[in-house]
Amino acid sequence: MEKPRFASAREKLESDLHDARHGNLVYTLVLKARRMCFYRELTSADKALYDRHFDTHFIRTAVPMPTANAEKLLALMDAGVLSTVRHGYADPPVGVDEDGGFVIVYETADGERSRLRADCVVRAKAHDFGLERHPSPLVRNLLRRGEIVRHEEAGYATGGLALDPHGDYRVTRRVGGITGPSPHLSSYGSPVRFWQTENNYAGAFVRAAEQVAADWAETARGIPQQTGNPESTAVPDDSELITTETRS
């Protein structure tokens, strides 16, 4: 699973299309196993083993590309409009030339380094779940301020941010040297620990959204109702909110 038998993305796409039309028992079993949400029960050492050898295969099987999209991609390849290269996290970032074109340094099938110029680049690679490298300035600044913390078990960072261990979607934050559930923030989806290994399908998003809404509704019911002139209500100073830090 680390070294697929396919020499190119095209071969893999053609194989997946064939399996979509004719079925693949292995993929069916993989999807069933993944829906059992076993990942959280693994030891930290077994989580590291799973992440290294199996996660990419499981996530691709659990959230497949629609057949129509795969057929469109193959048509673009046949027309010479689209080509693919292997570009992993260890490769240099895609550069931009003076004329606005893109320069990609990548690894060939023979393991050699090569360069490619392109008019347009689609970065079709999986998420990097290291929060320090998250593409969103909001997430990086929340992490820096301690409003979110990364999930770790026995020194192994599984990827994603930590949630309240009591089972809801409140994020864990750090105040001084103490961690605890945030009174302000909830999160679900790909930034959350275990999401990519257990919950990355449509029903999980709906269930999480319903639970977050119920949690905040319960919180709102516990807030004393204000009376008096609304104009006299103090407006909180938001100068320290995270949104002001991400304007740059």
Write a brief caption for the model.
The protein has 248 residues and is of the alpha+beta class. Helices cover 35% and strands 16% of the residues.
Shape field = globular
Q: Which regions contain 5 or more consecutive residues with pLDDT less than 50?
A: 241-248
SS-based class = alpha+beta
Largest sheet: 3 strands, antiparallel
User: What value does the Rg take, in angstroms?
Assistant: 22 Å
- Sequence of secondary-structure elements: HHHHHEEEHEEEEHH
The helicity comes to: 25-40%
Distance between the ends: 41 Å
Give the rounded overall mean pLDDT: 78
Which range does the strand content fall in?
Answer: 15-25%
- Cross-sheet strand order for the largest sheet: 1-2-3
Oligomer: single chain
Question: What this model shows, in words?
Answer:
The protein is of the alpha+beta class and 248 residues long. Helix content is 35%, strand content 16%. It is built from eight helices and seven strands. The chain has helices at residues 9-22, 25-34, 44-53, 55-62, 67-78, 137-145, 195-199, 202-221, and strands at residues 95-96, 102-107, 113-118, 150-153, 156-161, 170-175, 178-186. The strands form three sheets. A three-stranded antiparallel β-sheet has the order 1-2-3, with no helix packed on it. Strand 1 (95-96) and strand 2 form a beta hairpin. Helix 1 runs antiparallel to helix 5 (67-78). The longest helix is centred in the C-terminal third of the chain and has 20 residues, at 202-221. It is globular, with a radius of gyration of 22 Å. The two termini are 41 Å apart. 12% of the residues are buried.
